[in-house]
Amino acid sequence: MIVYNSHGRWNTVAWIRQLEVNERGNDFYVPTIFDECLCIWVTFDPVKAYEYDIPGDSDYFYHSLPLLEKQRIALEHITSFMVEPYHILLNYDGDGGFLLIDLSQSNG
C-alpha cells in the first residue's frame, strides 16, 4: 500500500504530540510507548497530500482543474511511502490523514 505526504519530514511521536496537543489544541491518541519512534502524517490520496501544502482558496487555477490533472500535479510535488510490515497507521485525524509510525526507527 502506498501513502503520501506533502513534505517528507519525519519527527518523533513525542514531537508530533507536543505540536498537535499544545500548539494546535488537537486530540492525540497515540500511546506514549511509541514516543521515541519516528513518524509522519500521511494520506491515501495524493491530491489531499498536495492540498495540505497549499492554502484552500489561494490557487484558483489548481482547484479548477479536472481530478486527473490534479493527481498528475500532486504526484510531481509530494512524497510517497510504501507501508511496510514494520509500519503502523494510527490516529486518524478526521480529514483523511493518519500517523505512519516506523517501528524500525527510533531516536531513543
Please provide a written account of the structure.
This protein has one domain. The model has no long low-confidence stretch (mean pLDDT about 85). Helix 2 crosses helix 4 (about 65-75). The protein starts with a strand and ends with a strand. It has helices spanning about 15-25, 45-50, 60-65, 65-75, and strands at about 1-5, 10, 35-45, 80, 85-90, 95-105. The strands form 2 sheets. The chain has a 4-stranded antiparallel beta sheet with strand order 2-3-6-5. The chain contains 4 helices and 6 strands, in the order E-E-H-E-H-H-H-E-E-E. It is about 30% helix and about 30% strand. The protein has about 110 residues and is an alpha+beta fold.
Task: List the topology elements.
Blueprint: E1 2-5, E2 11-12, H1 13-23, E3 37-43, H2 46-52, H3 60-63, H4 67-77, E4 79-82, E5 87-90, E6 97-106
Antiparallel strand pairs: 1-4, 2-3, 3-6, 5-6
Supply database-style keywords.
6 strands; alpha+beta; 108 residues; 4-stranded antiparallel sheet
What sequence of helices (H) and strands (E) makes up the elements? EEHEHHHEEE
Strand order of the largest sheet: 2-3-6-5
What is the count of distinct domains?
1
In terms of DSSP E residues, the strand content is 25-35%
Shape: globular
Helical/strand content category = alpha+beta
